[in-house]
Amino acid sequence: MKTQYYFLATTVLLCSFTPSQGGFKKNTRKLSDHAYNQASKGAVIQTNTGFDNQTTVTPGPFVSEDVKFTDLPERIQTFIKDRSRRNVDYLSKLPNLEKQLKEALSDKNELTFTSCSVYTSASRAVQYEVLVSYFGITNLPLIFDENGNLIWVGSFNRIESLVNFEDMSGGASKLSKEELSFFNSEFKASGQYRDFTVSEEAVSNAQASVNTYAGVKSYEFNLVKPDTKEGVGETLTLRYDGGKKLVAGFYLGKRQ
Fold this sequence. Notes:
Blueprint: E1 2-4, E2 11-18, E3 23-30, H1 33-40, E4 48-49, E5 54-57, E6 62-66, H2 74-82, H3 88-92, H4 99-105, E7 111-121, E8 126-134, E9 138-145, E10 150-153, H5 177-188, H6 200-204, E11 208-213, E12 216-225, E13 234-241, E14 246-254
Antiparallel strand pairs: 1-6, 2-3, 4-5, 5-14, 6-7, 7-8, 8-9, 9-10, 11-12, 12-13, 13-14
């Protein structure tokens, strides 16, 4: 099933159409030139309006389509198939995870395909966001480019710092001071992101982390700006590759 999204300049008119619904849903929100330009360079961002009148906004046009595993490029299929098996050796080397949990996970496949969404931008750039079950514990995303190259990974490395699954507050790989300084400078220079700073507190609360998997390094930010007037916060999620290039993200706030 395909969903088409359209956006116009910095006053964004979002119209989504799903054939089975037989009509359009529409909402609007202003975005900065910086945010629009970032998206036009290939950053693909999800969009949704929830029951609570909150809207997730993307600053660029794209088509979203859910596809089956067999419809994925062969390179992506091979990547997942190669890891759709047990990995007892990796589990045995985890430094902190309790022994009984290692044993419980030993008969689980490292990866199991769950779903995939394909995003095509106006410039015809394509991204595949694949959701996989990781040792049966949780679903995590992988983002591939149109050539099947893995360009962004979720928090797979978090398991390396966990002792058990009762306390999931830890386990995030923290950014260095140099990385914090770099991204804060980027955010402050942006009209869209300047109010969302990355603090030491955000890092300790796993709102900012470094993810690694299969030799790929990624950054993820889940930043919140509270609205003291109405008590409704704004959330900005940004995903960067190891070269600190924006890959994907989304904004969640009150619909205007």
